[in-house]
Specification:
The protein has 349 residues and is an alpha/beta fold. It has helices at 3-10, 50-64, 81-85, 116-129, 146-149, 191-203, 223-231, 245-260, 290-298, 310-318, 331-347; strands at 28-34, 37-45, 72-79, 101-108, 134-138, 167-169, 172-176, 210-216, 236-241, 265-276, 282-283, 302-308. The longest helix is centred in the C-terminal third of the chain and has 17 residues, at 331-347. Bound molecules: adenosine-5'-diphosphate.
């Protein structure tokens, strides 16, 4: 009997509700082998009593399939996510806060291209404009874009503890995978490696004291999102969508994933809500009010509606987020200011 055989058997056990297995998820904390007898310990964070029950039973079944197995013992160590949220470093498998960081807010979308990075960057700038200490971490290993939206191309340096010193732009501390890549290198990391990179990426950054750390997640519900929700004590998640049905369908999937792992949905931002022409007529290019209805359906606040705006796109391309403008000069900047205030109110409830 070897650890590899046990792990291979346990990799058939999916975390309930997800396509990923408990080994890839890093939930197998201990394997003890004595001849043909095996004892495994699984660590899970959940408030749902059905999850440990299911995992326990499926682990027993998986182990009993192994040829020549003797007696098996499965321990499932269950932690309550709420009890973990306030603390610093917790036991293995538990979520941890990042030292010095008061609130960690994820920005997610079901689908790419809906403006998630635009919302993350402008939310960070709008929060920084209130005098708060703000960091932004682009966790999209496959398509990092916030560095460009902040107009920064520098390579960050490391401190004496080997932590990366984030860059600073427009009053926000910035960390992005793109700082560690050259422009054309594709990031070919999948599964467990993506998980490890992300964990390292979040922990080995010298964030210092922050009121808010915004995490720009990749779109969808893949490995990186799961890693983050399982390892970092999030204050909650902001869901970005356009009013279009295809975006809403995927947004619902993202909401369902976050809800399953007990992450608070702070609310919905409807981006590209309409286009207003010079004469003041509004055209609902991607549909009318889909994000508003979705927020109602989910019983979560509508955090803001951001119109399609040429200046917003130009500012993003030029590295000067639109939220830097005064609210009187830009309706979108005003909308982001309001959105930021609503997010603050939600996390400070
Ligand atoms: P995501 O992070 O969801 O993939 P991005 O934030 O990168 O999306 O936005 C996709 C593209 O749409 C970018 O070129 C961005 O500048 C543009 N964009 C996003 N929101 C708006 C908006 N409200 N008005 C105009 N252009 C926008």
């Amino acid at each position: 009997m070897t650890e590899a055989i046990i792990k291979s058997a346990l990799s058939n056990v999916k975390y309930p509700g997800f396509s990923r297995d408990i080994v890839a998820f890093g939930l197998v904390k201990d394997i003890k082998i004595d001849g043909s007898d095996v004892e495994v310990t699984i660590s899970i964070q959940t408030k749902d009593p059905k999850i440990p029950e299911t995992v326990f039973k499926e682990c027993q079944d998986a182990l009993n399939q192994i040829d020549g197995i003797g007696t098996t013992r499965v321990n499932v160590d269950v932690k309550n996510p709420e009890a973990q949220a306030g603390g610093d470093q917790t036991a293995a498998g538990g979520k941890t806060s990042i030292p010095g960081v008061k609130q960690i807010i994820a920005v997610a979308s079901g689908k790419g291209g809906v403006g998630k990075s635009t919302v993350s960057t402008n939310l960070a700038v709008a929060l920084a404009k209130t005098g708060a200490k703000v960091g932004l971490c682009d966790c999209d290993l496959y398509g990092p874009s916030t560095a460009q939206m902040f107009g920064t191309k520098q390579q960050p340096l490391a401190n004496e503890r080997d932590e990366i010193i984030p860059l600073q732009a427009h009053g926000v501390k910035l960390m992005s995978m793109s700082f560690l890549l050259d422009d054309n290198s594709p990031v070919i990391v999948r599964g467990p490696l993506a998980t490890r990179y992300t964990q390292q990426f979040l922990r080995q950054v010298e964030w210092g004291e922050l009121d808010y750390l915004i995490l720009d997640l990749p779109p969808g519900t893949g490995d990186i999102q799961l890693t983050i929700v399982q390892t970092v004590a999030l204050s909650g998640v902001v869901i970005v969508t356009t009013p279009q049905e295809v975006a809403l369908i995927d947004a619902r999937k993202a909401v369902s994933m976050f809800a399953k792992v007990n992450v608070d949905i702070l609310g919905v931002v409807e981006n590209m809500a309409w286009f207003e022409c010079d004469h003041g007529t509004r055209y609902p290019i991607f549909g009318d009010g889909g994000g508003v209805l979705e927020a109602e359906r989910l019983k979560v606040p509508l955090l803001g509606q951001i119109p399609i705006d040429v200046a917003t796109r130009e500012c993003a391309d030029n590295g000067t987020p639109i939220a830097l403008l005064s609210e009187t000069d830009s309706a979108v900047s005003a909308a982001f200011k309001k959105t930021a205030a609503k997010v603050v109110a939600r996390v400070q409830r």
